[in-house]
Each structure stands twice: as structure tokens, then as C-alpha cells.
Amino acid sequence: MKFRATLIGxxxxxMWSFLALFTAASGKMPPFQLSAxxxxxxxxxxxxxxxxNPSRLALLKQPVKVWITGIAxxxxxxxxxxxxxxxxxxxxxxxxxxxxxxxxxxxSALLPGExxxxxxxxGALAGLCGTFxxxxxxxxxxxxxxxxxxxxxxxxxxxxxxxxxxTRRFDAVSTDVVxxxxxxxxMLSFVCHLGLETTVWPATGFEWVAIAGLGxxxxxxxxxxxxxxxxxxxxxxxxxxxxxxxxxxxxxLVLFGFAEPSxxxxxxxxxxxxxxxxxxxxxxxxxxxxxxxxxx
Length: 296
Prior knowledge:
Elements: H1 2-16, H2 19-25, H3 31-42, H4 44-52, H5 64-87, H6 90-97, H7 100-107, H8 118-135, H9 147-169, H10 177-196, H11 205-232, H12 235-241, H13 244-255, H14 263-279, H15 281-295
Helix pairs in contact: 1-11, 1-12, 1-13, 2-11, 3-10, 3-11, 5-6, 5-9, 5-10, 6-9, 7-8, 7-9, 7-12, 8-12, 8-13, 8-14, 9-11, 12-14, 13-14
């Protein structure tokens, strides 16, 4: 059960790795408008499930703290991320924001039934180094003039790691509530769009397809998979494995001609993959121990 849930959580990381490709192909739509549309699309699978099985609507009746955590996690993360990108260079802001996997691994020690071991931290740090090579491929230069953007990126990292860790504590809450989180995030993003941005619609059908892809997968199904994974899987492994997202994203951009291959990518592959394997050795041990037992 835990192994299967961990794999489901990892599919979220795979879907997030397509975020940059779909975003690059989606045209020049401003971020909050894009977020509002994508989260509205992302709520559709959940709405279909609820429509086909109305009895599941009762699962949406949850304590206020669950709704605050979910909406703050999804909307808060994206609001802070966009704020960081608006007020600091994308490379530095992205690197700071991507501290969240390390925060998840370290913070998991506070969860009931979890123990933080040296290889969890070592694996997360290896992934962070791999991410540094990818995100900082054009150089890093932290400038005090961008303090607001850097601060938003730090809050961004703590917001998503906090959301993921708190979600684990709500393991009895059905993943159906993610539908409500997506709808609320869509509405709040729309309000921010009206107050902060100028509306820009896609210029081609291909851009609409890219936006639909964003909404269905990286900004849709990925959140349902992540919710199920962190509630029922190995959150330490998922935290360390999350560093694969920027690496896979870069590899996908290279594959589709949006980036050039380099030694940095090769070394990042070694660091991220090695770090994930190191952090996941508990799961591999349980799997190997279970097989002889099953054979007996």
C-alpha cells in the first residue's frame, strides 16, 4: 500500500516536469490569468467524479483547518511564486523556491511514525546540488535590490513544504477535497488577475492545447496524485525525489528543442538520481524483505 502510494505521488513529480514545456507553449497569457484558467480545468476531473457519484459530496464536509491548509497551500504557493518572479531574477528566485523538497525531508521528522536518518538528508542535499546546476546554469548573483522577490521565494518554499507536511496529518481526509482547493485557487487567481493584470487570450489553437495540458496534468491531476502520495506514501522519499522535477523538465526542454544539452545536465542526472536512490533505501529494503516473506 505504502509503496503504491509513493509511486502515485511520484507521478505528480513527473507531471510537474512538463510544467515548463506547456507554459512555454501557452503563449503570453499573464500568470494569474493562466493560473485561474488552469486550476478551473484542473477541478474538472474531480467534478466529474462527484457528478457520477453524488454520495462523495459528503466527503467535502471537512473542518475549516483542512480548507485553510489546502487553499493556502495551492493558492499561497502560486501567489508567492509569481510574486518572487516579478520581483527577482527567475534563476535566483527559482533556486530559493526549490528549497521545499529539502524542507519536507527535514520537517518529516516531526510527523508521527517518521524518523529522519542521515541518508534522507544526504539524498535531499544531493538533489539540491543537482537542482543548483540546472536552475543556476546561467550563473547566480544574489542582489539586495531584489529582497522582496527573494523573501517571497523563501515563503514560497515554506508554504509548499508546510502544506505537504500538514496534508500528511490529514491522512483521513479524502483526496476529493482537492477539487475544492482547485476551484478556490482558480477564483482567487481570477481576482488577482482582475486587479493586477491585463487580459491576454491565446493567439492560436496550439496555445489553447498547451493550456488545456497544463490544467489537466501539472496544474490538475498532479495535485490529486501528490495529495494521495503524501498522505499514504513515504513522504521522505517523495521529498527527495521531488528534485527530479527541474531535471526532468530541463531534459524535456532539450528533447523538444527549447534548451541545449550540457555537462551540467549530465552531472545533475547523477546527483538527482543518486540522491533519490539514497533517500529511498528504506523502501527498497522493505520491498526486498517482503519478497522472501511472500515466497515462504
